[in-house]
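Supplementary notes for students who missed Thursday's class. We covered one full example, reproduced here. Read the sequence, then the structure, then the short commentary at the end.
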Amino acid sequence: MSEESGASILERTRSEFREIVERNHLLGARVSVLAKPLTPEEAIGTPGRRDFPIVIGKERVVESSVLGAKGHAFTDSPREFAGTLEGVLNLELTSNQNRAIYVATLNAVLSHLGLVTGTVHCRDEDPEHCAAAIAQLVLDRHGRVEVGLIGFNPAIAERLVEAFGAEHVRISDLNGDNVGGRRFGVEIWDASDRTEELIDASDMLVITGTSLVNDTFDRIWRRVQARGKHYLIYGVTAAGVSELVGFERICPRARNV
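Structure (token representation):
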């Protein structure tokens, strides 16, 4: 992908997304796109633990359905949308609501075309298995390093602490209910003003794909690149963007529908 100076990551994907849609003769077709906020049970089932952000009501999953394929995106500002792919491509990506619809629809379209897998959130006990796989991959690949988790996911946080020790894990989050508290022996930093500090202090970053929707990813990415840090982006939200931009994403239990 060519890099447009000053353009956000999402804006840089838009032209390529449009080319893909036009190449597959989908732009002019009356394609129905429905994005709806899912309940926790619809999105994630009934996991044993009840402290995931979606379960306690801090986030919702927006589901976009395109030609029978589905794509998910996490957001704290869900809204419904019904229209065409052209309508989605013309959305102003200046709000969490519009970014969630765009990202979820990008995921659904690329899934429909077989260009990406794992665009639908895992369910029930799968998040626990996912967290264990992420921690193990980081350990196998990098050894016992300093790890930064950007975006508090309780299962991933717990597994990282088990693998690396609380003194070697740093966590940042935007949810004020989490900031300043301690989970698994780690203080949760305020992501709005301490994420750069977290990146600088870590050898390896595990970054939530939700940052693409809440408009924090670009700032994170610039710092990761400037400091030459290793990283993984986790979650279904980042599926399509990662494919188009070439980011390394991990989401071992995500589903395809």
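Commentary. Residues 49-57 have pLDDT under 50 and may be disordered. The radius of gyration is 18 Å. If anything here is unclear, bring it to office hours.
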